[in-house]
Amino acid sequence: MRSDSAAGNAVILMYHRIADAGTDLCVSPAEFREQMAALRAQGCRVMPLLELAQALARGDAPERSVAITLDDGYLDALTDAAPILREFDYPATFFIVTSTLDGPGEFWWESLQRVADHEALPETLDVALGEGAAPMPLDTPERRRAAFDAVRRGFYPLSAQQRHERIAELLRWSGLAAAGEAGQVRAMTAEELRRLDAMPGMELGAHSENHLLLPAHPRAVKEHEMLECRRKLETLLGREVLSFCYPYGAFDEDAVQVAERAGFAAAVTTGNQPASPLSHRLVLPRLAVHAGDDLGARLRDAFAAQAQLHHYDRSFA
Hints:
With 317 residues, this protein is α/β, with parallel strands linked by helices. It has two domains: 210 residues, TIM Barrel (Alpha-Beta Barrel), CATH 3.20.20.370; 67 residues. 39% of the residues lie in helices and 15% in strands. It contains ten helices and twelve strands. Strands 1, 4, 5, 6, 9, 10, 11 and 12 form an eight-stranded parallel β-sheet that branches. The protein has a two-stranded parallel sheet with strand order 2-3. The chain is globular.
């Protein structure tokens, strides 16, 4: 094994949507195909996430190793991402939020974006602002953006019920249809998840039941979020689910211990760093990919980077 400071570096790529929608979560299908071609042109070894995690733990990951992950379980994972991955014979892991299986598959941030983008809103935002917050004017694009950024920030620490109530309040206030009554961007259904999981190289992993900010909640909630998500997926797929993704990349020591006790073999976060043999198998950093990225340059930098010893080390062991 190499002895320099970048010995064993690997890259775990993080995507969300493969679509032409143009938001910061989207990479177009055409650009995604170009990025997959860049992996091949750079001689990367694209591996299943669990296999890469095991190789990193042993310290024998092949040079220029890459794993591909896509978060949340949007429908375009099946319709757009998977066919391109199959063209290149690349495996990938798709992290699924399971609360969408019980009802309309619109995530809270997509509902909020629908409201923010609606042209016929009242002149002042006076709902879903949190206790003690003053109404916010919406009379200019800048003020509208500031208002909805403030609303969005307030959602992260909420419980699932609190989020549901605020979204319902915003939809009533805006006059927009509730999720399921409009042609919104949606998550995959149970049958669509089965179809994706049956494709060669495509693996489903757990991304929690409700996509909560786990460090903001007590241990019992963390346990429910991880275990209920895993239970639903395993019941749906008829197999073990061994990988987990922390919502928003947010974790604390308690969350890592819950993931360990839940039996996950690997868990990923964010960080925009390479993974290495120094990385804890339940706190594997990923490289977020956005539209317009020069993925080749970012890969070169990541493979050459010095392995980091901070909160991505083995301190939870």
